[in-house]
Q: What sequence folds into this?
């Protein structure tokens, strides 16, 4: 690396941290965990929303609790296959995820990554030089909103039902993306 590139610090990026199930893909109450590609269906408008957020300059970082791994209902390889599919489909729309973080632990393990802990967001912020004060956590459940709050980002809830105290509430990820677009 040249001295010149060292002397110009990269401006920290803003990010949209995304919960997965219920934000990007359909939550499936009938299967406790999405263990295979056949169970992964993008929500309407989700890919369009990701493309739009990316165009607006946000880093896209998925942060997902995957306790099914600790419970041996799925393996790390199963999860990797699902995420490979998610990435490939996104790439068809020109979307690249900047990071995909998952917590494989069970609740009793008291790790610092399982949401509502902010560990995954904080780790990604360090890895990717993210400015948390200009970033968002988008999720569909209280643990997402809480994780966002603890990490110091703005919390956004996706729901068509019960609200849980997020700063902003939208019926879909696309509605949130369109909201951000309108403000810029
Ligand atoms: Mg969710
Ligand atoms: Zn964890």
A:
């Amino acid at each position: 690396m040249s001295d010149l590139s060292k002397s110009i610090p990269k401006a920290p990026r803003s990010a949209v941290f995304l919960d997965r199930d219920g934000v990007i893909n359909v939550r499936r109450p009938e299967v406790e965990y999405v263990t295979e590609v056949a169970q992964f269906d993008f929500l309407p408008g989700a890919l369009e929303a990701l493309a739009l957020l990316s165009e607006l300059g946000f880093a896209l970082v998925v942060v997902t609790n995957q306790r099914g791994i600790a419970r041996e209902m799925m393996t790390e390889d199963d999860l990797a296959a699902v995420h490979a599919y998610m990435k490939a489909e996104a790439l068809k729309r020109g979307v690249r995820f900047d990071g995909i973080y998952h917590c494989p632990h069970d609740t009793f393990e008291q790790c610092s990554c399982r949401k509502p802990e902010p560990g995954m967001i904080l780790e990604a912020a360090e890895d990717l030089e993210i400015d948390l004060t200009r970033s968002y956590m988008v999720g569909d459940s209280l643990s997402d909103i809480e994780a966002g709050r603890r990490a110091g980002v703005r919390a956004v809830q996706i729901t068509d039902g019960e609200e849980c105290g997020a700063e902003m509430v939208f019926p879909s990820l696309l509605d949130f993306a369109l909201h951000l677009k309108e403000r810029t």
Notes: The first strand starts at residue 15 and ends at 18. The first helix runs from residue 3 to 7. Residues 103, 105, 111, 113-114 surround zinc ion (ligand 2) (CB under 6 Å).
